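Anyone up for a design puzzle?
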């Protein structure tokens, strides 16, 4: 539960920073060498949406065993990690990784790769814990409704 609250806070903050600096995101994503100019707008919107979905869900329902926010978190983490790894391997100079938009900027380095590796480790832990959660008993409708996301 604590991990979900921490990750929810971080990913919600990332999304808010990116929203506040949305005009800069296509340029930031262009530095990774996979898109240029306005072609980065749609990927930026998808990343922000994913960060908001999993971030808010983890904060609002930290005890939820639903897999949907876990898979969204995993997808966003994989995308950021792949962007960083391929740019680092190609020797691209990325002055701002873009995780928080133009705020809290970090140059792409081994430290950012380590942070990305940790997000992937956390994703694996979340997937594992969600999959190993005990199934709700058929006799308890309240527990069954919680497991499928009904408040």
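Challenge accepted. My sequence:
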């Amino acid at each position: 539960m604590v991990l979900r609250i921490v990750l929810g806070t971080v990913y919600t903050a990332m999304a808010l920073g990116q929203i506040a600096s949305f005009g800069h995101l296509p340029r930031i994503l262009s530095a990774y060498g996979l898109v240029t100019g306005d072609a980065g707008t749609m990927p930026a919107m998808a990343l922000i949406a994913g960060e908001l979905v999993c971030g808010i869900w983890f904060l609002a329902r930290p005890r939820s065993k639903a897999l949907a926010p876990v898979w969204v978190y995993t997808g966003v983490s994989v995308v950021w990690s792949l962007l960083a790894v391929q740019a680092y391997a190609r020797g691209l100079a990325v002055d701002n990784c873009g995780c928080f938009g133009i705020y809290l900027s970090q140059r792409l380095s081994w430290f950012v790769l380590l942070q990305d590796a940790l997000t992937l480790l956390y994703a694996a832990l979340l997937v594992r814990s969600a999959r190993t959660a005990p199934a709700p008993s058929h006799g308890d409708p309240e527990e069954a409704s919680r497991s499928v996301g009904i408040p």
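A detail worth pointing out: The helical segments are 2-20, 25-30, 41-60, 68-89, 110-131, 141-147.
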